[in-house]
Amino acid sequence: MRYTQSLRLSQRLLPFRFVEEADSALRDRVRLVLREHPGSQRAFAEQMGLDATKLSKSLAGTRRFTPAELTRVAEVGNVTVNWLINGSDEVETVAAAPQRSAVLARTTDAREAGRHQQILDAAWHLIAEHGYHAVRIADVAKACGISAATIHYHFPGRDDLLTEALRHSVRQAFDRQVAELHSIEDAHERLLRLVDLQLPKPGLLRLEWSIWLQVWNESARNPKMGVLHSDSYTRWHDTIARTIREGQQQGVFVTDADPEDLTVPLTALIDGLGIQVLTERPGRSVERMQQVLHDYVEREIVRR
């Protein structure tokens, strides 16, 4: 009797032990990022936009990193959120693994990585705000406060810089997805969160949508960009399909339809509504888009 009670207790504690071990491993990886990054821990926190005390508490385990903080750790530290959480860039968990053409080129030198990151940040913001063909190397150099020669040291040509900036935008989006979704076990809740992460809200998400619109446009005329678009979009599509498949296994989604057949119309609906919101079609708002998408999920995908 005493053995049975002990066994039941250990079974209840197992998930908590697993979470604690995962959190401990994540903190170890953040510490590794800090050791390899030039400058102090306080300077790293400042670059993240995080109070240094909060970073210390998160490393000590007295508070947990928020999804936004994990995304910033990854960005500043030149790693991926997938690596921080799971120990690998390519492990498939809540999001599909990246396709080869969508993988962002990285340098192993920490100081050079910081400059590389600064250039990409400036370039993708300029592309999102002014357009792919309107951005010049001189514009990026001015935004960074550096010379055009420094830009060329990291990126041989303008097309190299702009293509890497697009990859950077894609990685940002998927880092945020992994950070936001990795702790959500219920597939229904996770799917709705995935939908919400695609809403073109003012700020970062709207800028990312601007990037995607330009990728679609360039893909129609540039085969190399078409490959990048296809691989990036495949990952997004597969992440949705993976979530729907898991929801079917959990019994929360309809089981008489192939996950692919449910994914295609949902992603198409997200794309179409997002374009309408960005182009400010009358009656199309972020709030209306969210309502339509949530209603669609409840009507077509959720099991009654």
UniProtKB/TrEMBL annotation:
Annotated GO MF terms: DNA-binding transcription factor activity; transcription cis-regulatory region binding
Listed Pfam families: TetR_C_6 (PF13977), TetR_N (PF00440)
DNA-binding region, residues: 136-155
Transmembrane segments: none
HTH tetR-type domain sequence ranges: 113-173
Superkingdom classification of source: Bacteria
Domain HTH cro/C1-type: 40-84
Protein name according to UniProt: TetR family transcriptional regulator
